[in-house]
């Protein structure tokens, strides 16, 4: 009976992690929608990134202090988490937001949809994942879809801006390395402490960037119309999904959690059409279908 109870608890824990990964993915995927909404009021993509991190910083600081009071954590672990945060939570989003200013939110989500495949490749690079022929075929389908999407017309742009596309893809690669490396650190520190340390370091980096770039005035006195959008971006699309997705990575592992996180990008083109009035071209629809098919194949590779 005890063994059955333990198995039941384990199944419930895994199910909660799956739900966390899916919900976190959906919330995080709304980032591009809200960013575009802020840009419609005169903000830049990088300005929205900085504003959301500034508004999110107090939450991360409070959770980190609470975590450290509950359980002492070696300073070196906090420093390592902060270093990973600068890569995965600052550099990667910065590249993503930079590219988002050149392509539509729909295309950005198609490109982000390749993240699970990248995470599996990085996990294989570190010896944590095996690449079978089935996996390689599924990865090929994913990247064929990305290529097709980038060749098509991109909303109001003449073509998918190659600089924007490259910036988003490089950001995805950086994030993939962050995800794989973060799993081990989470097991040492706990989800709340690790996530708070990583995201707080990212928030501080954004603040330094604002001072260097002379954007302090925008941070202190943003346009009134942008404030509620930035708050929603910070709390709903940054703080909440950060804790949910990292918990999913910890329980499910990087590869499995990444596959479940494909649900968010699946819904974003629909939201972009409803909220922003964007339209996906035929090549982007076809590319999206290929990427999604590749993700389904990846989720079944162990079956």
- Roughly what is the average pLDDT, rounded to an integer? 79
Percent of residues in helices: over 70%
Largest sheet: none
How many structural units, i.e. domains? Answer: 1
Query: Rg, please?
Result: 19 Å
Beta fraction of the residues? under 5%
Low-confidence stretches: none
Structure description:
Helix content is 82%, strand content 0%. It has 303 residues and is mostly helical. The chain has one domain. Helix 3 runs antiparallel to helix 9 (191-213), helix 6 packs antiparallel against helix 12 (254-260) and helix 11 (227-252) packs across helix 12. The mean pLDDT is 79.
Features:
single chain; 303 residues; mainly alpha; globular
Topology record:
Blueprint: H1 2-29, H2 31-39, H3 45-70, H4 75-100, H5 105-112, H6 115-125, H7 133-151, H8 162-189, H9 191-213, H10 216-220, H11 227-252, H12 254-260, H13 263-276, H14 282-299
Helix pairs in contact: 1-11, 1-13, 2-11, 2-13, 3-9, 3-11, 4-8, 4-9, 5-13, 6-8, 6-12, 7-14, 8-9, 8-11, 9-11, 11-12
Summarize, please.
This protein is mainly alpha-helical.
């Amino acid at each position: 009976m005890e063994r059955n109870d333990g198995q039941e608890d384990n199944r419930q824990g895994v199910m909660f992690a799956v739900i966390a990964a899916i919900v976190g993915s959906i919330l995080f995927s709304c980032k591009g929608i809200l960013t575009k909404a802020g840009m419609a009021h005169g903000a830049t993509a990088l300005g929205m990134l900085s504003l959301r991190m500034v508004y999110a910083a107090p939450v991360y600081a409070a959770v980190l202090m609470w975590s450290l009071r509950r359980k002492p954590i070696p300073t070196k672990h906090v420093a390592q988490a902060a270093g990973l945060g600068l890569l995965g939570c600052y550099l990667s989003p910065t590249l993503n937001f930079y590219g988002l200013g050149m392509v539509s939110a729909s295309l950005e989500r198609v490109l982000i949809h390749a993240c699970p495949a990248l995470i599996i490749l990085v996990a294989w690079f570190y010896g944590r994942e095996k690449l079978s022929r089935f996996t390689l075929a599924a990865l090929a389908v994913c990247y064929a879809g990305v290529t097709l999407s980038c060749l098509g017309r991109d909303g109001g742009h003449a073509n998918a801006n190659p600089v924007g596309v490259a910036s988003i893809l490089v950001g995805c690669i950086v994030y993939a390395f962050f995800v794989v490396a973060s799993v081990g650190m989470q097991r040492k520190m706990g989800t709340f402490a690790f996530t708070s340390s990583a995201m707080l370091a990212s928030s501080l980096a954004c603040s330094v960037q604002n001072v260097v770039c002379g954007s302090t005035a925008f941070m202190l006195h943003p346009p009134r119309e942008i404030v509620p959008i930035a708050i929603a971006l910070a709390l709903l699309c940054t703080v909440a999904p950060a804790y949910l997705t990292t918990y999913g990575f910890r329980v499910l592992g990087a590869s499995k959690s990444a596959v479940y996180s494909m649900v968010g990008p699946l819904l974003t083109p629909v939201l972009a059409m409803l909220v922003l009035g964007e339209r996906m071209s035929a090549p982007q629809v076809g590319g999206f279908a290929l990427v999604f098919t590749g993700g389904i194949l990846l989720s079944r590779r162990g079956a």
